[in-house]
Amino acid sequence: MAEGVISLLILRITGILASEAIKSPASTLARQPSAMSELMKDISEIKDELESMQSFLRTAERLKDADESIANYIKQTRSVAFDIEDIIDEFTYKIGEEQGGILPKTIKIYRNTNSWNHLTRRLREIKNSLQNITERRARYNTEAIDIKPSPSKAGGRSNSPAEYAHFVKEDDLVGIDENRDLLLRWLKDEEQQNMIIISVWGMGGLGKTTLVTHVYNNIKTTFDACAWVSVSQCYDTNDLLKQIIKEFCREDHNKIAITGDIDVMDYRSLVQTICSFLRNKRYVIILDDVWSINAWFDIKYAFLDGNSNSKIVLTTRIYEVALLAHEHYRLELKPLEPDHSWSLFCKNAFWKSTNRVCPPLLKHWAEKIVEKCCGLPIAIVSIGSLLSFKEQLDTEWEKVYKDLEWQLTSNSPFSERVNSILKLSLDDIPHYLRNCFLYCCIFPEDYKIKRKRLIRLWVAEGFIEEKERTLEEVAEGYLNELVHRCLLQVVTRNEFRRVRECQMHDIVRVLALSKSKEEIFYMDYKHSRTSQRCKARRTSVTCGTIEHWNEDKSYLRSLLLFNSSMSCDFLKSVTKSSKFLCVLDLEGSSIDEVPSEIGNLFNLRFLGLRETKIEKLPKSIGKLQNLQILDACGTRIKSLPNEVTKLGKLRHLFVLINPDKMYSSLAAFGGVPTPKGIWHLKDLQTLQFFEANSEMVKKVGTLINLQTFGITK
């Protein structure tokens, strides 16, 4: 997912090149033609280079596991991208210095002219590094990649996991009774006058293929024609049609010969052959593992004839594909219930014993292992099979439990089986969603992520592409797409059916964490080595304190605390060592003061102080010219400094007094007086919670982008 790093960087540079600070002839920058023009020229050229890299990486990412040279190239380009990001961040920081501060303009111009020259030299060094890297490979041309991705045959390889589903014994199936009966009822329904499309969808590893294949094998003899094919991500339309014809012939009881050599037929001949074969027949077709609606539209003309009571069943992990079926014929699979999970585990872990019962000595660790799988059948079956070959000692099983995350991300038999299913979903994530997806693993295990908080963090991180809608609306679309791809699970919805809270499945999160570590995208403070923390762009602290974090933090762009403590002195050190910080979320921490040095974080776009003990904000808050979100809900702040009205890019402002957390009623909370001039912040979308006054009544209409407005009295 190095392409995600490049995509983010391109967005950042595009924004800089289009910014008023650069374009305005009256700006200080325009008075430095030689140094600035050279730097801007190099930035523009590096953007072109990054766009070429991005095109190459979209193909290369899929091949890195098969080609070590490609993996090495991706690693090197990612490192270069981080170097470019450092330069871009320093550039925007210097722009901020020019636009504010108390130094005379002549001193600023002289000092920053040297800075522009220094950044220009660094950019040119990076361009040379890129040249050296790309000389080892053909320059950004996918044709130069030695290993070509061959389209998957419709039926898959003989050792495809989907093929194994045909041989699963009924006794080994657990927790499918209700879904099996529903599918059978739909397939046996003879009242429908039209061909019916049925969809079975859910995240990878839930057993969609196993369920549908089991039902198919039980009912296929009641149809005149039947076929089961696996579509996969890289299908070829003609190959898919050929495989369907071969399946018809194999399952045909009457052994009707197909005229012509299907291996040499073109698309039209293949469609006509299928139409002719199905005429006046009642058929059932299973299209397993469909990733795109185009797969159906490419072959649908072959199924317009035939008996009107025919059925086509799709399995997919993409909600958009599931929508091909009528709403009454969509079946969404969910993780197994705890009792079914336990039963499935015992069947696989103790298959060598007659009764398949867990020995009392192992039950404690066995239950913890099953709980860790969170009802995902592929994980339960895989770890159960692995444990069936381990000694039945509690110490041995304890070791497996403690190494479970390592097992998932190593080359163990367990990870190979699980990853073969789930990695497909990760590889299929579009480039614009990759950073958003990885960001979700920053939140602790089983954490219920609030929609609004996540969306605002994505916006602050710069992950969202500018479109005709607001950034928040685009971000919510991204969130829904991750849900529809079964990469995030909905916990609760509001009265309008919008996601209120979501979370990441534990197994998916482990894989996302592994990818984040590989990409240096994010590191957990408690579970990473010093050398890793020194390079991580984003860090979270899930418990305890970080007062002893003495390593270099200059790489840090985002810091999030969860149930952790931080002192004002440590925050001061962060503002000095992490001057390019763009997200600082201290929600729920024990901090009780914001130091004036916070104003040094010119690039800061998100400041989260929710549920802290902070009583006031420093006047230096007005220096945060890039701040977009200021969240001070549930604090002890009773008034805002007037300098808040200088935050021209502010989109969301929350202030709600919570003097004593022992009180949970709304009466215990209160708003703050409205700062004079708040009406000049034209980008404001959210303004909560403020005391009403006459000026507010007169001026609120000037906030043309305001969507949420909260007053307390």
UniProtKB/TrEMBL annotation:
Gene3D superfamilies, per the entry: 1.20.5.4130, Helical domain of apoptotic protease-activating factors, P-loop containing nucleotide triphosphate hydrolases, Ribonuclease Inhibitor, Winged helix-like DNA-binding domain superfamily/Winged helix DNA-binding domain
GO molecular function: ADP binding
Positions of transmembrane segments: none
Keywords: Leucine-rich repeat, Nucleotide-binding, Plant defense, Repeat, Signal
Domain spans labelled NB-ARC: 183-353
Ranges of residues in domain Disease resistance protein winged helix: 442-512
InterPro entries on file: Apaf_helical, Disease_R_plants, LRR_dom_sf, LRR_R13L4/SHOC2-like, NB-ARC, P-loop_NTPase, RX-like_CC, Rx_N
Domain Disease resistance N-terminal positions: 9-104
Signal peptide: 1-18
Domain Disease resistance R13L4/SHOC-2-like LRR: residue ranges: 556-711
GO BP annotations, alphabetical order: defense response to bacterium; innate immune response-activating signaling pathway; plant-type hypersensitive response
Protein family (similarity comment): Belongs to the disease resistance NB-LRR family.
Protein name, UniProt field: Disease resistance protein RPM1-like
Gene field: LOC109705434
